[in-house]
Specification:
heterotrimer, A alpha+beta (169), B mainly alpha (505), C mainly alpha (41), A: 169 residues, alpha+beta, OB fold (Dihydrolipoamide Acetyltransferase, E2P), 3 helices, elongated, C: 41 residues, mainly alpha
Chain lengths: 169, 505, 41
């Protein structure tokens, strides 16, 4: 019994310790995904949202000391606008040869952003790096080369045959 | 009367189809080099395999008749119809080996979409696709847009004399621009080279300024240029034009889309010095009128949703999609889902109409085409004038398209027939989509996008869509690109061949 | 009647610039129309 009481106390204490970290935010943050944000039915326009995803673009110039970073979340990439120094920690963006940095973006969703010509975007307030991106091993299959060479051999034989006919051989 | 088939016809058809397929093997060297240059060894093997299969398949087909075999007009039409399928079939091989497609059918879908300059795609995880595969997808736009046949002419692959002329005419670009086919092919490539070079340079600079590294800047610029100038719509990133967050990118691509939708004959006329032609031309006027009216409609439509709080946003989003739809390109700066859920019925309708109408004839644009709409409008006016005039009066109408031409009943009937064929195909595809359980509006949008080779999507086109609908959209892209006639000739000839066989048995 | 074949290659720059100018005009007119429509609404 005492053990349960201690566990309960620990939970309560931990809860109180961790709550202030979340900040007792005045605005509630909605956990979401890129797919939901782009659905236009999320009902989150103008609200604070948080989503996790992989960085799939270099930091693109966003004007006014800001940059754009495109973050792929649940198959849909969302443009995230943030102050340039916020993106300073980013190193690897996802492409064929690399998996990009995984980040958690907290920011405000605009379904038609007035600052950016009506784009659907997120203006970031916080960016956390979850895992560093890394290069990807993409081994190839050598049998493909075999098939290719065999095909070329067949094609060459066919071409020779056709040419000899055309030359009246 | 249906003329039956002989073994000789089949041989000639197979021979020329084979030569065109073999030329795809040559073109696959470009993505192979891209792969080797960027150290993508896996994709390099995909293209090594693809080249072998395309070359072997093409050469085996070509064995069916000796080189320089005579090609009748009807057989040329059949070759054209088959060439899109055969070329797509081999073009899909390296794509399907990439591991980014749900299966060969999905890769085949993308190959057809690429060659017909549509832009609908079933690729998965596009943001991690190899540069080589992106090069090939965009190259398909260039090859298909400039015409498989013209491409083959340019690499001088065994097409000679009369065969080449009828092949070219069968592509639906039947007005001859320059005295002979080689000149025409060369001139089309010349215009293309100028626009592609210019677009690539400007967009490269824009990408560099945005902060992309040099190699990626140039590749992305080249791909975007090709996709816009050939009114294709593929992009190397899942966000398409949204990836760049750049008004300059959007402005340049809109100009490229307009250049791509301009009739090649008009390009030729203007570049030859007849600059007034663009103002007098019926088709140019029809397209301009079309864009002007739909600009107002989409402006009202998007403003009505109150999603965008400034008129500037309405214009930037509205016009980009309007021109993208009207030119048959399909680039977008909005998310697919918004068409059904966010941008309102009127804007949706404006985009649907723009896609259905399409750009100019003898360009890479799809749809009914501005020339036909202009002719039909003239025809309506003529009929009204006839009704008003006294019975004894002879009422005539003329139109200006490169030359001053009297509006004949023949020309008008042809325009109306194709109008009807397009509309029937649009609606049929929409009904099939609805039968699969999609909302009718979205199904119609997607069906028109496929038939008019546009590539905008409400999100129906996805790897998860039913196989039957994938096949329907593939058929629509193919039929729309061929403007139906070559397809009908193929079907009619097949039926005639079967009948002849039965008759002999 | 004189039939002369003008090379389309010689005047390409003037042609290109004409085309781009016309496209720009089309875009400006479309922008003006859409802007007016959006404002009035």
């Amino acid at each position: 019994m005492r053990r349960y009481a201690a566990a309960l106390l620990a939970v309560v204490v931990l809860g109180f310790v961790s709550l202030p970290v979340r900040g007792f935010a005045i605005e509630p943050v909605t956990e979401t995904t890129g797919a939901e944000l782009a659905s236009m039915t999320s009902g989150l326009d103008g609200q604070l949202v948080r989503f996790e995803g992989e960085v799939i673009s270099e930091t693109l110039d966003g004007g006014q000391g800001h940059v754009w970073v495109n973050v792929l979340s649940e198959g849909v990439a969302i443009g995230v606008w943030m102050p340039a120094d916020m993106a300073g920690e980013l190193e690897v963006f996802g492409r064929y040869s690399h998996t990009g940095d995984t980040v958690v973006v907290t920011g405000t969703l605009s379904e038609g952003c007035d600052l950016h010509g009506g784009d659907l975007d997120v203006h970031a307030e916080r960016l956390e790096l979850l895992t560093r991106g890394e290069s990807r091993e993409r081994p190839g299959d050598l049998w493909k080369l075999g098939v290719g060479l065999a095909g070329l051999a067949v094609a060459y034989a066919g071409w020779r045959r056709m040419r000899s006919i055309a030359d009246g051989g | 009367m249906w003329v039956g088939f002989e073994r000789r016809d089949l041989g000639a058809i197979a021979h020329y189809t084979g030569m065109l397929v073999a030329s795809m093997a040559l073109l696959m060297v470009i993505p192979l080099l891209t792969a080797l240059a960027s150290g993508e060894w896996g994709p390099a093997l995909d293209y090594a395999c693809g080249i072998g299969i395309a070359a072997a398949f093409g050469m085996l087909l070509a064995q069916s008749a000796p080189r320089g075999t005579h090609l009748t007009r009807r057989n040329a039409l059949i070759v054209t119809a088959l060439a899109w399928l055969a070329a797509s079939l081999v073009a899909a091989v390296p794509l399907s080996l990439s591991g980014h497609y749900g299966g060969f059918v999905d890769a085949f879908f993308d190959a057809i979409s690429g060659l017909t300059t549509s832009g609908l795609t079933l690729v998965q995880d596009l943001d991690h696709l190899a540069l080589a595969h992106n090069m090939w997808r965009h190259l398909l736009h260039l090859i298909g847009g400039q015409g498989i046949v013209v491409a083959a002419l340019s690499v001088s692959l065994g097409l000679r004399g009369g065969g080449a002329v009828s092949l070219y005419m069968a592509e639906g670009r039947d007005e001859r621009i320059l005295p002979n086919v080689m000149h025409t092919a060369r001139f089309i490539w010349f215009v293309t080279a100028i626009y592609v070079t210019l677009g690539t340079v400007v967009l490269s600079v824009s990408n560099l300024i945005q902060g992309m590294e040099a190699g990626r800047s140039v590749l992305h610029a080249f791909w975007a240029t090709v996709a816009c100038y050939d009114t294709g719509g593929f992009g190397p990133q899942s966000q398409n034009a949204m990836y760049y967050h750049s008004p300059i990118f959007e402005g340049v691509t809109v100009i490229l889309m307009l250049a791509g939708t301009l009739n090649f004959n008009l390009h030729a006329d203007i570049w030859r010095g007849d600059r007034k032609e663009i103002f007098k031309n019926l088709e140019a006027r029809a397209l301009a009128t079309n864009i002007a009216i739909l600009s107002v409609v989409i402006g009202i439509g998007l403003a009505a949703t109150r999603l965008f709080s400034t008129p500037g946003e309405v214009v930037r989003k509205g016009l980009y999609h309007l021109i993208s739809a009207n030119s048959g390109t399909g680039h977008q700066t909005l998310y697919n889902a918004g068409w059904a859920n966010g941008y309102g019925g009127l804007a949706f309708a404006a985009i649907v109409l723009a896609m259905a109408f399409g750009g100019m004839a003898s360009s890479t644009a799809g749809g009914i085409k501005a020339l036909r709409l202009g002719l039909i409008a003239k025809g309506v006016v003529l009929r009204v004038r006839e009704s008003i005039a006294p019975a004894s009066a002879v009422v005539r109408s003329r139109y200006h398209h490169l030359l001053d031409v009297p509006l004949s009943a023949d020309v008008l009937a042809n325009a109306l027939m194709l109008f009807v064929l397009y509309v029937v195909t649009y609606i049929s595809g929409g009904m099939i989509g609805a039968a699969y359980g999609y909302p009718i509006g979205e199904a119609l949008f997607e069906s028109i996008s496929a038939t008019a080779n546009v590539g905008l999507s409400t999100g129906i086109t996805s790897p998860a869509m039913p196989l039957g609908l994938k096949v329907v959209y593939m058929l629509q892209m193919w039929a729309g690109r061929l403007e139906f006639i070559a397809l009908f000739v193929l079907v009619a000839s097949a039926i005639a061949a079967v009948r002849a066989k039965r008759g002999r048995a | 009647m004189e039939l002369r074949f003008h090379s389309p290659y010689r005047g390409w720059l003037a042609g290109l610039l004409t085309e781009i100018a016309v496209f720009a005009v089309v875009i400006i007119v479309a922008v003006a129309l859409a802007l007016a429509a959006a404002r009035i609404f």
